[in-house]
Amino acid sequence: MARRAGSGKPRKSPSRPKAGSSIWYQIVLGTVAGLVLVGLIVFLTVWRHDKQDFNRIVSETQGVPASSEQKPVPPVPPVPPIVAAPPVAPPVTPPPVVTPPANPPVVVAPKKAETAHTGRAVIALVIDDVGIDKAGARKAIALPPQITLAFMPYATNVAAEAREALGAGHEILVHMPMQPLGAADPGPHALRADDTPEKLQQEIDWNLARFSGYTAVNNHMGSRMTEDPAAMRILMKTLKARGLFFLDSRTTARTVAAKIAGEEGVPSISRDVFIDNDQTPADVERQLAETEHIALKTGVAIAIGHPHPVTLAVVSEWLKTLPAKGIELVPVASVVKR
Q1: Is residue 169 classed as helix, strand or coil in its secondary structure?
Q2: Does the CA dihedral 298-300-302-308 come out positive or negative?
């Protein structure tokens, strides 16, 4: 065993490369490296040339010179600020057009010669209920023009009679029927305090449409109506819109007509004397004397009568006595404080 381990053929030592082979190997390796380097240089040269051509083509396509990429880009001019337009003034709304009431009155002012007075005591005499009795209407129209005539709206042919009175120089009023406190009938289309506002306005408009040329309204009866503030306010608003004044016949001591008229800006006056509650010549004369007394004491008196035969006869004679007493007869509109 020991022999075997130590015996046998002797081992060959590893062979060493020859010196010539090593030199050849280095030459080949250097050649390959040189070729690679040359190829790399050629590639880079071609690539750079191609890139410049590519940039030139792109620049020409976009309309920008090829050399512009090497120049500083000029700054973009600032965008001017957006200035808000000045505010537009809102359109001016024209004032509403006020439609005039149906059948507006044609106000005819009395002649200056009839109304001008010199500071002496004056009396305005109004004859109510004109138009119901046709003979009485004709006699009333024949009175001196300084006497004011109040026509009943529901009278027949009232528009023609009102025109006749205007032609004779009289001032005319609407003698509007109104609800009394008692059971007396004021006539058709009377104003009633217990009517709805719509119904009341309808009746007011009906009465005012019956004729034209009037300057005012006064009440026929109306002791119930003139005590009611709400109902009288509806009437006063209508008179205000039409430029009319109100003559309160004062058929009740509790009337609110003057108060409501003042609140609504409507000129108003009140009756001082009824001259013919008692229809005898002596009674009418006595009431006319009372009217004179008030006029001489206060400067103004307002009397109301009716076209009764006795009243018209006494008034015709009484008128003749006024100049000597220093009293002037004037239409009622001339004593209204506007």
Answers
A1: coil
A2: positive
Residue where a domain stops, chosen among 23, 44, 59: 59
Quote the pLDDT of residue 337: 77
Q: How many CB atoms lie within 10 A of CB 164?
A: 14
* Residue-wise pLDDT tens digits, 263-272: 999 999 999 9
Closest by CA position to 123, among listed 306, 300, 333, 305: 300
303 and 217 assigned to the same domain: yes
Task: Name the DSSP class of 81.
Answer: P
The residue-averaged pLDDT of 45-55 equals 52
Together in a domain, 154 and 50: no
Q: Is residue 13 part of a domain?
A: no
Helix, strand, or coil here: 152? coil
Both 210 and 307 in a single domain? yes
Rounded to a whole number of angstroms, the CA Rg of the chain reads 59
Range of the domain at 53: 31-59
